Every structure is written in structure tokens, then in C-alpha cells.
Amino acid sequence: MSRLVVASNRVADLSVAKQSGGLAVAVGEALRQRGGVWFGWSGDVVEDGEPDVPTTTSLDNVTTVTVPLSRSEFENYYHGFANRTLWPVCHYRLDLAEFSNEFLESYRHTNARFAAEIEKLLLPDDILWIHDFHLIPLGSELRKRGVTQRIGFFLHIPFPPIEILTATPEHEWLIDSIFAYDLVGFQTQTDLNNFKRYLLQLGNTTFLPLDRLICGDRELTAGVFPVGIDADHFAEVAHSPQSDRIVESMKVRDPGLALIIGVDRLDYSKGLPERVRAFERLLELHPEWRNAASLMQVAQPTREDVDAYVDIREELERLTGAINGRYGNFDWTPVRYINRSVERDRLAAIFRASRIGLVTPVRDGMNLVAKEYVVAQDPDDPGVLVLSKFAGAAETLTEALIVNPFDTDEVAEALHAALIMHQSERKHRNYALRTKINNFDVFKWQKDFLTALEHSRTSYLIPERT
Ligand code: ADP
């Protein structure tokens, strides 16, 4: 088995990976099985003149190598091209995208710098797995330096339709750089189709069976690899003695209250204002839920120095205040808004105690909260997942109540249907969803991707192999 070299924006602390979510665990497992290196940003920013040397930590056969960003890289590469340009473009929000040459140059330059660092770490037989939108051109920068090993790239966020992508300056350069990889993975068939439609329109790609794509002298395989969660572990956490205690105390505090739970980073892609409006509409259309149902929204602050995030937070706070002022009373708060991060075991318990998991992004690569909510349920008396059709997860989680988050009435009616749904139907839906989530967990995702990478045809055969 080849040694694995992973590059991603951030690197997990492998000694506490269980707490940092499924992805870190799955990538950590692959690294431990094969031995290897995990490279990424340390999270530190150094000012001009300060040393920017990599930090190396080893645990058994796995080494993590992290580098700081300079102040200018942090502003222009990370908060610039990644967060202010690519994130909105890939989430279909051209209106929020900012374009600047400074951002683009820093993005190129930082990826080139990372490539130089990674090259020093490589052995001839390694395979490389690069993650996400921060690092799209990393593969082509490595190729420029003569790296011939197999390299795979996985995009965790949506791939936008051609009409949106072509509005992005230098999009040809960006997409062309994907052809430096041997395998490119997307979350959904929609994303892969968007990628192929873009290539079709550009007209310089030959399409072979099994999603093999030829562009010039390069061959690339494309595939769909929907990311999963560490389903067994999350279900276990949701049913631990500590979770039992949390669930029990929640029931005692609010006997008979039907809780609707939303858990997200406070991002404009998550459809949070739309969600609060839909809950308000439920109270208008079905007044029997006044005093009887509450929406608990846990919204973790994120990217707070980007204007669009300040705006979405203000809008959410305004809406929450308005609905609580209009409907709330001494005994009942319609919307409970919690603006912070919550520990995973508490989160799992809150999911379990909630009658509805309300996941309504206006655009999302996958959405792992939807999967976590399902596996946290008590299989004999589960809650119902109400899921936006614009979450990648909706492509497979078809037994959820699938809604259009922009259609306030439709979401309100889905909430009502979920609240009155008979136990037998809830069990049937939960079982079907849980089976899919268990069968396609994050470990399978990792294995499927790496197997496909090892079997991908490559035009960059290393000398020993030819
Ligand atoms: P994204 O990657 O866009 O943030 P996902 O739903 O795919 O969205 O993954 C989010 C992860 O972060 C999930 O594992 C979820 O449980 C966790 N998370 C989201 N919001 C919070 C929060 N407020 N507190 C703790 N964990 C959170």
C-alpha cells in the first residue's frame, strides 16, 4: 500500500481526533493504515519579518506538518479568494462574491508556496489527496515542480453551474488546474454534472466512458463520493449515560414541548432567516403549535470579519427578536437562539431530544448535521428530518421530508406534517435513512476515494512504474 500525503486547509490534532468530527477520524485512519503526512495551515498568522517555519509533529507512523500564513496571505488568500470569492461563487451567490487581482495572486502564490513545502516531504511511491477549495491549484503547482505521483482532489463544497462559474475572473485557469489531478471527487451527481457541462461548453475535453476525461495530454477521472459521518460513534455518543441525563433534564424542564432543532455555522448558505420565517409561518397556519413547539437554533459564529456574515447575523437576530416579541409569553419562547459552539455529546443529546431536525440550507455541499440528526434518534420513537432539496445530502436521503427552503408555506406544512406524523411512519423513514447513513459512512467514503485514486489511469507515471 502506498504511503499517503494529505493536504487540507487545516490539520486535525490526531491525538484527539474523535472529538473533532468524522472527517478527521477517517483521514486519520487512512494515514495510520498507510503511514504518511498531513500538511496544512497551522491557524497562525505571522507578521512581516517573523519566522514562518513549518511545525512538525509525529505520532507513530503519521507526521503532521503545519505552516503559518503571512498577514497578507491570511487577508488575501484565506479571507480573500477562498472565503470572499470561491465560497460565495460555489454556493451560487455571485451577489456576495468579491473579485480582486490581489486575492487571486495571493491564492496562486500561497498554493505555490505550499507545493514547495509538500514536495520536500514526498517519497517516490506516495499518493496524494488534496482537499477543498482553498487548494484547487495545489496539484498543478506540484506538477510544475516535477511531481509525478498520483494526486487526487476532493471538493467538499458545491461545484457551481457554468452560468455562475464563468462570471468568475480567471475561471479557465482555475478549472484547467483541475486537470493536473488524476482523480477529482465531488459530493453529488449535480456537482459532477455541473463540472461536465462546463467542460462540454468549453469544447476542449473528450468524454470517455466511466467519467474519464481527456484534455490535451492529460487524463482525469471524475467521480461522486458523498461524504459521510462516523455514524456508529455519533449514535453511541447520543445514547451515552451522559446524553441520557441531558435528554431527561430537557424533558423535565419543558414537559410536552415539541422541539425543532437547527444546528449550523452562522453562514448565509444555511438558510437561517428562511428557517425562522418558516417556523413563524407554522405558528400562523397552525396556531395549535403556539405554546407547544419551539425552534432551537444553535448557530456557531464563523468568519466574523467578512461583511456578509455580519449582515446575516444581524438579520437572524432581528427576525428572532421579532417573532419572540410577537408570539412569546411568560411560559414559552418560540425561538431559542444560541450563538455559539456546543460540545458534541451535548449536541447529540439535543438532536435526540428533538422531534424535528430542521436542515434548510439554500445551498450546501453535503450537510453532515442532517446525517448526525438521523443517527442520534431513538430507533423506536424517532424524530423526523426536514431537509432542503439544495443540500447535497438530499440526493441520497430521500426518506426525509424534502422541502424547498425558499417556499415558506411548504416548509411550514412539512413541519406540521412531521409534528403529527405517526410513530410507524417515523420509524420506517428513520430506519431507511439510518441504513443508508451507516452503509455510506465516512470510512467508506475515504476507502472508496483512495481505491478509485489508486486505480485511476494517470498520464504522470513515475519512472519506477513505467
Ligand atoms: P459545514 O461544513 O458547512 O459547517 P456540515 O453540516 O457539513 O456544515 O458540518 C458541520 C459540522 O459542524 C457538523 O459535524 C456539526 O455537528 C458541527 N456543528 C455545526 N454547528 C455547530 C455548533 N453550533 N456547535 C458545535 N458543532 C457544530
From TrEMBL:
Signal peptide: none
Listed InterPro entries: Glyco_trans_20
Domain of life of the native organism: Bacteria
Family membership noted in the UniProt record: Belongs to the glycosyltransferase 20 family.
PANTHER family with a match to the protein in the record: BCDNA.GH08860 (PTHR10788:SF106), TREHALOSE-6-PHOSPHATE SYNTHASE (PTHR10788)
Record-given protein name: Trehalose 6-phosphate synthase
Record organism: Filomicrobium insigne
